[in-house]
């Protein structure tokens, strides 16, 4: 469906199947850059919420090991692409944007968690 959009190996868009593979086989960390209210309304299980405005600050939501793959997600993908650029500047080696964002995740019938 969504082939990698760039060949630079840094911030490739991935489809839901590839995202699941990265999460399950490569221990990718899911970084959800939605606002807290959006995140509470539904997110990928195990995702860490780091709103776009806070990405450049880094923080506890980001893994200390910058070699771990990151899957960045938002509602549709636009904010995730901006966040991916910031994460690369922070030194994260493998940053992937979930093509279609949470909308694509839901459309694929994948599980969504809601915060209490």
UniProtKB/TrEMBL annotation:
Residues 24-114 form the Rhodanese domain. Pfam families: Rhodanese. Keywords: Transferase. PROSITE patterns: RHODANESE_3. It comes from the Bacteria. GO terms for molecular function: transferase activity. This is Rhodanese-related sulfurtransferase. It comes from Sphaerotilus hippei.
């Amino acid at each position: 469906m969504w082939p990698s959009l760039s060949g630079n190996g840094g911030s490739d868009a991935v489809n839901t199947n590839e995202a699941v593979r990265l999460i399950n086989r490569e221990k990718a960390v899911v970084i959800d850059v939605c606002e807290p209210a959006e995140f509470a309304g539904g997110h990928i299980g195990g995702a860490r919420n780091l709103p776009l405005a806070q990405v450049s600050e880094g923080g506890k939501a980001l893994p200390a090991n910058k070699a771990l793959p990151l899957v960045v997600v938002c509602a549709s993908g636009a904010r995730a692409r901006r966040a991916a650029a910031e994460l690369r500047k922070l030194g994260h080696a493998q940053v992937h944007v979930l093509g279609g964002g949470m909308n694509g995740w839901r459309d694929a019938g994948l599980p969504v968690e809601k915060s209490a």
